[in-house]
Amino acid sequence: MSTETSKKAAGRYGMTIDIDRCNGCGSCMVACAVENNVPPAESGATDRTGITWIRVFQIDNGGRGAEKRSAFIPMLCQHCGDAPCVSVCPQQAIDVNPVTGIVEQMPERCLGCRYCMVACPYHARYFNWWDPAWPAGMEKTLNPDVAPRMRGVVEKCNFCHGRWHAAKQAGTSDSLSAYVPACAEACPTRAIRFGNLDAPAADVALGSQDPDSFRLLESIDTDPKIYYRSKKKWVREAANAPRPGKETPRG
Amino acid sequence: MKPSRRSLFQFAGGAVAGALFTPAPWRLITDTALWSENWPGIPRPRRGEIRAKFTHCALCTAGCAVRARCVGEQPVSLAGVSGGLCPFGLAAHHLPYHPARLKQGSASEAAAEVARHGTQGIALLDLNPGRTASWAYRRTMQAINGTYLAEPEPFAVDLRGVKTLLSFGVPVLDGWGNPANVFAARGSFHLIQVEPIESSTGVLADEWIPVAPGHESVISQAILRSLQQGNPSGLARQLVDNGPSAVLGDLPEIPEINRLLGAYGKIVVARPEAPVPESWKKSAASVTRLADLPDNSVRVLLIDEASAVDYIPWHRIARKLVRENPLVVTFTATRGGYARYANHAIPAAVYPEILDDIAPPNDRIAASFRLSVPLVTPPAGMANLAEFAGALAGVQASNSLRERVGEIHRLGQGTLLTYADGKETPLRDLPGDDFWRALNAGGEWVGEPSRTDPPSLQPAPVPSAESTGDLPLVAIAQPHNPPGSPIMTKLYQESNLRLAPNRIALSPADARAAGVRNGGRAVLQTRLGKCGVEVTVDPAVPEGSVRVGASPGIQDVCGPAARAKVVSA
Amino acid sequence: MASQIDRCFITRGLQRCSTSRFLLWIAPWTAMLIFGLYCAGLCLLKGLNQTNMDNRYAFGLWIFLDLTVIALGAGAFFTGFLLYILKFKELKAVINSAVVIGLVCYSGAMGVLMVDVGQPLRAWFTFWYPNVHSMLTEVTFCISCYLTVLAIEYLPIVLKNRKLREVPGFLVFEFELHKLIFVLAGVGTFLSFFHQGSLGGLYGVLRGRPFAFREGIFVWPSTFFLFILSAAAVGPSFIILTTSLVEAITKKRLVKQRAFDLLARISGLLLSVYVLAKALDTLIWINRTSPGRGFLASQYYDWKPFGTWILFTEIVLCGLVPALILLAPRLRAHRVWMVSAAALACSGVALNRFVQTVQTLALPTLSFDKFLSYTPSWQETGTFLAVTAYGVLVYSFSFRYFQIFPEERELKAAQVIEPEVEEPVSAGRY
């Protein structure tokens, strides 16, 4: 099967997300929306039509009463090394950045056909079902490094690419090593860590090799760059299970 | 010569072919693309010089240090200086533009009416006690023989010193303390969380003990008895064996349990305050709790709701008002709180528009003084209760912060932390003006740790168990949350991560019995009244309970463990 | 007076109902069209929040509709291929009808696609920045080209109208065009082969959706070939269905039995091949492809209401059964059996497209996903109704004013017809 998308990028930015540290506070979700000029929901929006580039889901171990324990899993674009979405866009609005390995979405090019949303198994892509609207005056708080999108286009996490650009423009090696997406910066428990998976000493590189680490849907060979970690066996089994569970989880 | 049809076609064909060699069609193509990328009505972010400003978040007493990324003078994003911020703090720069913000209301009209009523039986309810403004209120009330009302929490907990922490539903890991502090200390204590539904704190706790809502005191009474008998078993044994231990929660047994565990003076101490000028202490009214005030005794009530860190259900306040013609004036930033009941609702400025200090936090045992520094200009017409009340009493309140800082500097103790350069400077080495400037630039003064025993408080009266009647569900209340930006729809509406303030959550069986569906509207009924709500159906909610959001409307009718009924709207 | 003018446009020798009755017929369809255009307008003006599609159901009723009508409209290319390339002369009786149906199906699909995309003004981006790896690029190109081909094939039908052919230029143009008809048929077949296949390829290449993903040959998953086969098989069936419907509504015999017979045989044969191929593909998928991706095929059918009955219905009830009926000479000779089999076959293809579109999206991929349901909103349904109404109206006009069925006159002479109310013939013209 054709897999032209597995271009080798010079750098591979990725994340390790420690599920055992995530308390489901939602700081990552809010920080992401603030950084990326994602508007508040329209009144008719639901959790299926909202835009949450990163979204925290809650799973549980299926127990009852005192046996029931939960865990939180932040879900975002996995920036797959072999992304199913890149090859399906009819007008090349999706590209893998050769320098950073980030899967980039160009809302300006996007036709809004939503084929990439069908292709993504991680549900990481969001469509602008409405035109964005901010309450009067709140548009003053928009981040100048990120263009607001119009309705009818798809958007998704891009590892706060605007920050990477700003860091590159600043030109110092410090600025680039300080580049971190808004969610990782905001996480109060440091559950989300970001870095270059190819730099051997980086937190994320070490984390990705931890025996308690796993990636979601490894069996379909998308080569995601988000490594989840949990010491709890039930979490690893539940999150990794290819078989969808029968219980209806929250999130 | 008449042009033939052929020549016409030839001309047309040639014109089209020729046009392809001009920029016109290509320009038209690019313009269409550009046009479809830039619809009118999509705002374009303003550009400008990027600056960092430092302040402290005033949404709750955690008072996290904040670095604001500003475009010109306008903050566009906030980040924690020494760790993460909570989701409310991260989007607080949106609060000035919240659509539910109160903008109309005349302070002069309210002042005139207060003057007509006279100041006999006047009281001031401070919903964010412990600030410098709170001292101004106390001095004002003293001067006019009024009552200063507040619900103080005079404890602070040393998380670094505790080894076992038993929490009765306190959101230790999500909203109770300063996240940076709490998670820095997390590794050093074993957390046992007792609550009816697994909260965010419960998920990360080392042990989670589910308990039927309203029955937490069964466990706390058992622990107390066990400790008093000198032969601790079960949880009590764990607390004794793996000390130092402490218990958090607002059950009446807890202060005695903490005393017996030896936590007082070591882990649970009197919440320390930054130095206060002696003249203030001498001229300040004492702090009165609402429950200790006689019913029907307040003729004029002034409420500072603007930076409230909690919400008191209206019926508890209303019973203290005189029956005949009471006057209630609230200073608030939202139409949703006491503005619904007050005679006058005066618009007040919000964080991050005003200069204010932050009340002492509950997870630090060293005194601290932090300012929340204005990052944006408040809109015109905002009023200030300290000045309003001060005017009634002839008390000059506008320079309070400077006076207080002066007092701290005079005593010369402690250290100044500045975040822009990451330095710690002993206060002794700083001139007064520099100290004031540094605090206004987001610095923080930290004093010596306190090891004083907390004052022994008469426990707050526990609401009596309600008869079941036809109210089949027990309410599980959410902890109070700070005001949220409109972007909080990410957590409430565009995901199911948190329960929106105006929502309730029911188990599927109870939802079916009530005839309500997920996302539908319903009415929450209790013995105190009704409230329109939206419904979430959630299998994690135990049957026979209803998880209720923390909106003022719901809190007015539904307290913790209240009995309720849900009917479809 | 208006009816006199109307009469002038009706082909000589053919009998059509009175003008007022025709207006009565098109009135409800016109109303439906107007309502549907209003719904489409709402979606274009207010945005796609007017639909019930969401981030998990990115494709909904419209995509399902598009795939189905394109499969059903395959009769156009396939009949053309059979007639002009393989020289099955009997099909001359239905080729015009097939072309009209094809045109209606493809133009309706394109219309709905323009409403379905979030930014219709950027439709040309696919042509400007095409992604050669994407099946959807292929679909866009081929469908656009094929729509042009269909429009060109429709032109002669229009130009042969009684009044229009009085313009000599049109007659000449139509004559010249007819010389190229086999070129058009060839191009149409080639384009259709690829876009019918690519529509299947759309789902077969989805590595992220193990329910839809299939192995195949080179870049083409098995669904590529299965879609072509099923479209070719069902095209003739749809022609049988529509022609029978028109005959029933107009109470005329329009096509000789031998044309029906040929269509039924071809449809039955291809349907059998398709059922075989599909069964084989399903077995490979259940035993190799899906487990190889880490998903047991049985778990897809644990989610109600999509049990294994869907698979059975699609392959056996709406695949094997109509194939056998259409292949049995004694059965297909009876109108009722033939039409029922054709209807079953068309339903089978619709079900297959539904499974590919809707069931794929309903099924969870992540372990903490839920199985989700989707119901189209009234705006979506209205737009779908607009396409149906548009189709009926175009076909009705074509049937009334153009000679869609060349055998009609012959068949009319051969049977007793119902007496018709005589309209006054306008003076000077016959």
Describe the structure.
- The complex is a heterotrimer of chains A (251), B (569) and C (430).
- With 251 residues, chain A is of the alpha+beta class.
- Chain A has one domain: Alpha-Beta Plaits, CATH 3.30.70.20.
- Chain A is built from 7 helices and 10 strands.
- In chain A, the strands form 4 sheets. A 4-stranded mixed beta sheet of chain A has the order 8-1-10-9. In chain A, strands 2-3 form a two-stranded antiparallel ribbon.
- In chain A, a hairpin with a 6-residue loop joins strand 4 and strand 5 (103-105).
- Chain A is globular and about 45 Å long.
- The model of chain A is unreliable at 1-8 and 243-251 (pLDDT under 50).
- In chain B, the strands form 6 sheets. In chain B, strands 12-5-4-13-14-15 form a 6-stranded parallel beta sheet, with helices on one face.
- In chain B, helix 5 (132-143) packs parallel to helix 14 and helix 9 runs parallel beside helix 11 (254-260).
- The mean pLDDT of chain B is 91.
- Chain C is mainly alpha-helical and 430 residues long.
- Chain C has a single domain (28-412), classed as Up-down Bundle (Formate dehydrogenase/DMSO reductase fold).
- Helices cover 70% and strands 1% of the residues of chain C.
- Chain C has 17 helices and 2 strands.
- Chain C has helices spanning 2-9, 19-46, 61-72, 75-85, 92-116, 125-128, 135-159, 168-179, 181-204, 222-250, 257-292, 297-300, 309-327, 329-332, 335-362, 378-401, 408-413, and strands at 216-217, 220-221.
- In chain C, strands 1-2 form a two-stranded antiparallel ribbon.
- The two termini of chain C are 16 Å apart.
- Residues 417-430 of chain C have low confidence and may be disordered.
- The chains are: A alpha+beta (251), B alpha/beta (569), C mainly alpha (430).
- Chains A and B meet through helix 1, strand 2, strand 3 and helix 5 of A and strand 3, helix 7, helix 8, strand 9 and helix 17 of B.
**Strand line-up of the largest beta sheet of chain B:** 12-5-4-13-14-15
Shape of chain C: globular
The low-confidence runs of chain B, each spanning 5 or more residues with pLDDT under 50, are none
Question: How many β-strand runs of chain B?
Answer: 26
**CATH arch. level architecture of chain C:** Up-down Bundle
Number of domains of chain C: 1
The main pleated sheet of chain B reads as:
6 strands, parallel
Helix content of chain C: 55-70%
Sheet with most strands: strand arrangement of chain C: 1-2
Average pLDDT metric of chain B: 91
Number of discrete helical segments of chain C: 17
Q: Write down the CATH class of the largest domain in chain B.
A: Alpha Beta
Task: Return the CATH class of chain C.
Answer: Mainly Alpha
Query: Which structural class is indicated by helix and strand composition of chain C?
Result: mainly alpha
End-to-end gap of chain C = 16 Å
Report mean pLDDT of chain C, rounded to a whole number: 89
CATH superfamily of chain C: Formate dehydrogenase/DMSO reductase domain
Beta-strand percentage range of chain C: under 5%
